[in-house]
Amino acid sequence: MRFVDEYRDPERAAGLARRIAAAVTRPWVIMEVCGGQTHSIVRYGIDRMLPPGIELVHGPGCPVCVTSLEMIDKAHAIASRPGVIFTSFGDMLRVPGSRGDLLTLRSRGADVRVVYAPLDAVRIAKENPSKQVVFFAIGFETTAPANAMAVWRARQDRVENFSVLVSHVLVPPMIAAILQSAGNRVQAFLGPGHVCAVMGCREYEALAARYRVPIVVTGFEPLDLIEGIWMTVRQLEAGRAEVENQYARAVAWDGNRAARDLVNEVFEVGDRKWRGVGAIPKSGYRLAWEYRAYDAERRFEVEAIDTRESPLCISGQILRGLKKPCDCPAFGRECTPQRPLGATMVSAEGACAAYHQYGRYLEAAPEGRAAAPAGP
């Protein structure tokens, strides 16, 4: 456990928290971008170790949470067709669309299968030549190389009954959208370590310079996060706005060149809708023209979708750092992990799921209602 325990040392964490407290002279709002970071912060109570002047808000770094309702509904439309084997990672099966989720669709007879790697879907296509096999390719830049490899492999092997429903999103355009949004309070970011392991840190330099915000690429263990906050506070207090790499043991400044080259061959940048946020220009990947034959949207001609979001869900405001899960009147009551109204509750990386998992729905509730009881 050495390589885990050394990043969970409570004495070192407390020492860093004291250094942060000694350095702070005014309030600051910092957003952690990644959902994995959010879960670590809530699990270990890192936000509660900080001085009152430091507020952490939770960003859009949960790939399941930001997959648009329209894309979820397109997945349902494709999966419900005869002759289709629809494949996906397991965390997408319970994400609510306008009319239910993929798990419910499977219970009604649709051939929906969980896979553990995109290449598993290519294998299934080879084993079922009379079926159309579709893989739901979602995620940030982190999962793009594996999804690109599946498409590249299918083309190399001439697997013509395989296609992907692409809903990849990109972090830098979303950061820019948050900073440009009305009511924005975010003054600095803990950058997404896993994304930067693929893409590197360089593309964040323009954001830091243009918007005058510190961006510290940070890992996921308690000491990673507290050190990342310390590095961010030092910049804020000094009036600096730079990109720093706290997670140097896993992130190279230029990322993984081989992975980036594959992604750039198979995908191109295009506009993308984000759930709860709306359309952001040039904020996602789509298949490059040379790989268009593997585009499930083209193959199945799913275009206009009438979507219906729950009127109680405020996940869009949570994803932009404007609200926290406990600010939602449905949190822990009408919306629970067993009966989620929005993707931020159903996803393993969602902020609402983190707050619920670690008991914060039992604490401060919005004014005018009592905290919800434990249990489903």
Automatic annotation (TrEMBL):
Short name of one Pfam family for this protein?
A: HypD
- InterPro entries annotated for this entry? Hyd_form_HypD, HypD_1, HypD_2_sf
Instruction: Report the superkingdom from the record.
Output: Bacteria
The record ties this protein, via Gene3D superfamilies, to: 6.10.20.100, HypD, alpha/beta domain 2 (3.40.50.11740)
What keywords tag this UniProt record? Iron, Metal-binding
Signal peptide positions on this chain: none
Q: Which family does it belong to?
A: Belongs to the HypD family.
> Which PANTHER family does the protein's record reference?
HYDROGENASE MATURATION FACTOR HYPD, HYDROGENASE PROTEIN ASSEMBLY PROTEIN HYPD
Designated name of the protein: Hydrogenase formation protein HypD
